[in-house]
Fructose-bisphosphate aldolase (Halobacillus andaensis), 274 residues
Amino acid sequence: MGVLGKEIRMNRLMNQESGKLLAVAVDQAMARGIFEELMPIDRKLSEIVEGGPDAITMHKGIADTCFRKHAGKAGLILKASTFSPWQPNYDTWVTEVDEAVRLGADAISMGCIVGGDDQPEQLRNLGIISGQASQNGLPTIAHIYPRGNQIPEDEKGDWRHVAYAVRAGAELGIDIVKTKYTGDPDSFHKVVSSTPGKVVVAGGDIGNNVEDYFQMVYDVVEAGGAGITFGRIVWNNQNPTAIVKAFKNIIHENGTVNETIELYNELINQPANL
């Protein structure tokens, strides 16, 4: 049950030419607080969609009120959990699978922190939602990070911990795992090799230099990663449309970093066609 539906939705999510994913996340408000750069959210969504991402991750309320006019232009990934500024290492379940189906989502996503005291409960939630989503023909995406309190701070970027997080997702039936980049292609290739599933990276916090992000995305693809799900570096940009198109050049069109920088510089001052 649900096998064909899941395949159809996965094919809508993943670019049919490259087989990779370029997604943008706008689910940060409950988790990290209010960002002026995400205001007003409906206009920001329009600027992002104009760039042509494969999908956008958001919570159900924003999907229901702001995503309607973009239906069919980008895939919808519905976020089913969130942490908060006061509980940064615990993702609580806030949305059921049937709500994602009702809203026409192409996938449902859930956060999970490994290496902490709450790991057993968070992994249990991930396993449950994976099974429920599969029954309903819905792909699952897990945002899994090794940042629990039992992992020393200087080890949270170690590829072995990242690989553990990624493999845990695969063991629980997750279709796509979003995690942190380990800093270099060789170590990230080990992460990708640790799982039979697809691995995409989060933007993280490597500063505001877009050239650094272009290099990171290029290295991720070269290491075998399945793409990206970026948030702040996209919606915090003066021209979200331009930076999405630039990332597309690397992920879907095999562009080099230098080619992408040239393209971005051409696009950055062009107004979005909203």
The mean pLDDT is 95. Strands lie at 21-25, 55-58, 75-79, 81-82, 92-93, 107-113, 140-145, 176-179, 198-202, 227-230.
